[in-house]
């Protein structure tokens, strides 16, 4: 065989056109590159789909963990509701005792006080019964939490089953066990007993004070009428100090004020009016004509006004809310009483011998017959020496006595009304002095009771229902998908091998509780408490103040101190505080100040929300052996991802044991406690409804789940599927 000359170049040119170009890219290389690229793309896509299908178990694990932890959150809501009821019942009982104490300080308030104290006793008994039953029921419920959480997690996992998926879930609360819930007795009953024990004595003293002050009020009303009340009433002629001062002395305006109510009048006004009146009359006094008789009368009036002005200026009125001290000096109202004054002994009258060996005393130096007067003497001297009466001025002791008598014995005289005011001032002072010890006895007797009330209210804030239930640190959920699924299902391709099967997949997830200050927790608790308050509000009768107080406290539970202040203020508004002794106002102010000073902190009503977290966080927060084991296994899994670790077995055993212990006795709902207040017609249950899956489940469900998960352990041990 030989080569044909001249063919080789042509052959070379033909081969270059088929297998390569001038840039070095051959047709075969291009085809091979495309085939490899497509194989890699479709293989990667199938790997992604397989991983995506396998990762679905993680989403289910997260949902199961949240579902399990949600039961713990709801349990905490129930705890806080029970705490709200117990706390508000304690505060209501103490507030009712405080209101009863205030009522017992009010004269005539024994009936209301005993009603309030009886209601306080009923509420205190209700609180004790409720707290005992609630803590017992909550202890049973928290013991069942591992079972409830496990069943709810399993139900959520089962809800994700499909044609190719079959999920099994086991939930492990952290911690698995919890301390018992307990609450101590409060001091509300002892406070009520102390107030009840002192109520009779307080009422006796208060009533004594009222009787004395009623006498004082009557005296004050009478004095007011004779000072200016007669004129203010429009009576005719309206004789009184005001009217006489206006007519006789011409006083008006601020010099002669007019009060229209005894509530705005005081004895000091009458005293000031008398002082201005006598000063004005003394200055204005003058004879009405030129007769000797009128001159004598004017001289006598001037002596009376001068004496009265000086005497009244020694008077005073000192009055406070708790004391009264007054001195209304009295003028003589006749000749006999005049003889007991300095008017009788003053050497104010001229006398002398009339030339007939007779001594004559004259009314004043201006007497036409007083030219023989050589000395000055007193009326006492005139009567003791038997002086002869002057035939011109006719001066005797009665001359002066008549001046006082004329205006003191008839109702158109200033002195007539002044004497009545002075007499009533003495009665008023006597009555006020009699009331003061009784008022002090009420205040002193109630002081210790208010102190006991304060201590009890301060202690009530510490007597709370609190819980650290199973799952308070979080929950770890183990979920396995035991359903089989073709690896290329829905994604068959000639570029990737087919016929593989996705078998058991498993994942861990964890959830814990965080507080959500968004207000939902307050809304949940407030919604329940509003219903309780509405039921309580249906009761009528004398206990409305107590029930209204409890209703206000329930509705304002999250407000703490301000709710208590408002409730007590509303209760005080229903008491007859405005009375003569002032004890009602004093006791109300005392109670209000006591409540204001407490500063009770608002209750924490933030909602607890379950959130997904790394399982290590939950495991490290739990000090149990299972938690420590989980943390250790996770560390090893991170360091040696292909090593087989007995992770699921530990979790399953712990979860199964805790759940079985709490499974007994559960039904569709549990009555935590019942609020029953004897005598007030209140009976309100507090019930928690369990998820339907719990009421339908039985203990064998937990055992079955645990066995199934253990059965697949061998096929998934060592697979690292962490959140």
TrEMBL record:
Statement: the UniProt record of this protein carries the keyword Transmembrane: yes
Keywords: Membrane, Transmembrane, Transmembrane helix
Region (Disordered): 194-213
Transmembrane stretches, start-end: 25-48
Name under which the protein is recorded: Molybdenum cofactor biosynthesis enzyme
């Amino acid at each position: 065989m030989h080569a044909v000359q001249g063919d080789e170049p042509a052959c070379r040119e033909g081969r270059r056109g088929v297998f390569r170009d001038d840039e070095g890219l051959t047709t075969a290389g291009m085809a091979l590159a495309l085939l490899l690229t497509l194989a890699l793309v479709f293989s990667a896509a199938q790997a992604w789909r397989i991983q995506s299908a396998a990762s679905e178990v993680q989403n289910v694990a997260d949902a199961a963990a949240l579902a399990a932890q949600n039961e713990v959150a709801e349990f905490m809501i129930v705890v806080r509701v029970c705490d709200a009821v117990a706390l508000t019942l304690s505060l209501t009982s103490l507030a009712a005792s405080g209101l009863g104490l205030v009522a017992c300080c009010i004269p005539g308030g024994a009936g209301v006080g005993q009603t309030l104290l009886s209601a306080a006793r009923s509420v205190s008994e209700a609180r004790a019964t409720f707290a005992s039953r609630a803590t017992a029921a909550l202890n049973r419920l928290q013991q069942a939490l591992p079972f409830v959480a496990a069943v709810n997690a399993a139900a959520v996992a089962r809800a994700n089953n499909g044609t190719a998926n079959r999920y099994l879930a086991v939930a492990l609360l952290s911690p698995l066990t919890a301390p018992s819930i307990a609450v101590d007795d409060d001091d509300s009953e002892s406070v009520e007993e102390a107030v009840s024990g002192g109520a009779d004595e307080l009422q006796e003293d208060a009533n004594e004070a009222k009787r004395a002050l009623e006498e004082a009020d009557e005296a004050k009303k009478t004095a007011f009428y004779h000072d200016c009340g007669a004129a203010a009433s429009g009576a005719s002629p309206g004789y009184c100090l005001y009217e006489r001062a206006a007519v006789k002395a011409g006083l008006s305006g601020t010099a002669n004020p007019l009060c229209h109510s005894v509530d705005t009048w005081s004895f000091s006004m009458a005293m000031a009016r008398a002082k201005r009146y006598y000063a004005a009359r003394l200055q204005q006094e003058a004879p009405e004509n030129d007769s000797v008789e009128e001159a004598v009368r004017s001289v006598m009036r001037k002596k009376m006004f001068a004496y009265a002005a000086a005497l009244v200026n020694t008077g005073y009125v000192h009055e406070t809310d708790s004391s009264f001290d007054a001195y209304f000096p009295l003028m003589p109202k006749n000749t006999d009483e005049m003889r007991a004054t300095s008017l009788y002994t003053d050497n104010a009258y001229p006398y002398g011998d009339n030339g007939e060996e007779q001594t004559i005393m004259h009314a004043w130096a201006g007497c036409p017959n007083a030219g023989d007067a050589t000395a000055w003497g007193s009326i006492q001297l005139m009567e003791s020496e038997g002086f002869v009466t002057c035939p011109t001025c006719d001066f005797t002791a009665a001359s002066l006595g008549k001046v006082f008598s004329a205006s003191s014995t008839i109702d158109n005289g200033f002195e007539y009304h002044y004497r009545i005011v002075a007499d009533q001032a003495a009665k008023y002072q006597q009555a006020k002095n009699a009331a003061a010890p009784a008022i002090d006895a009420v205040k002193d007797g109630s002081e210790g009771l208010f102190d006991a009330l304060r201590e009890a209210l301060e202690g009530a804030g510490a007597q709370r229902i609190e819980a650290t239930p199973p799952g308070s640190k979080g929950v770890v959920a183990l979920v396995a998908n035991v359903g089989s699924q073709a690896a290329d299902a829905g994604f068959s391709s000639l570029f990737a091998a087919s016929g593989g099967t996705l078998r058991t997949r498993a994942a861990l997830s964890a959830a814990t509780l965080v507080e959500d200050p968004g207000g939902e927790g307050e809304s949940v608790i407030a919604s329940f408490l509003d219903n309780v308050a509405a039921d309580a509000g249906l009761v009528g009768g004398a206990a409305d103040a107590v029930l209204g107080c409890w209703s206000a406290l329930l509705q304002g539970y999250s407000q703490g101190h301000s709710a208590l202040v408002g409730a007590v203020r509303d209760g005080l508004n229903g008491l007859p505080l405005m009375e003569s002794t002032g004890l009602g106002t004093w006791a109300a102010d005392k109670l209000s100040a006591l409540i204001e000073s407490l500063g009770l902190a608002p209750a924490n009503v933030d909602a607890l929300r379950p959130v997904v977290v790394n399982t290590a966080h939950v495991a490290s927060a739990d000090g149990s052996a299972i938690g420590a084991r989980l943390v250790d296994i996770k560390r090893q899994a991170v360091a040696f991802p292909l090593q087989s670790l007995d992770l699921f077995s530990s979790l399953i055993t712990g979860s199964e044991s805790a759940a079985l212990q709490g499974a007994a006795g559960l039904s569709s709902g549990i009555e935590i406690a019942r609020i029953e207040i004897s005598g007030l017609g209140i009976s309100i249950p507090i019930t928690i409804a369990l998820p339907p899956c719990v009421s339908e489940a039985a203990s064998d469900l937990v055992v079955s789940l645990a066995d199934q998960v253990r059965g697949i352990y061998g096929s998934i041990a060592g697979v690292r599927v962490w959140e």
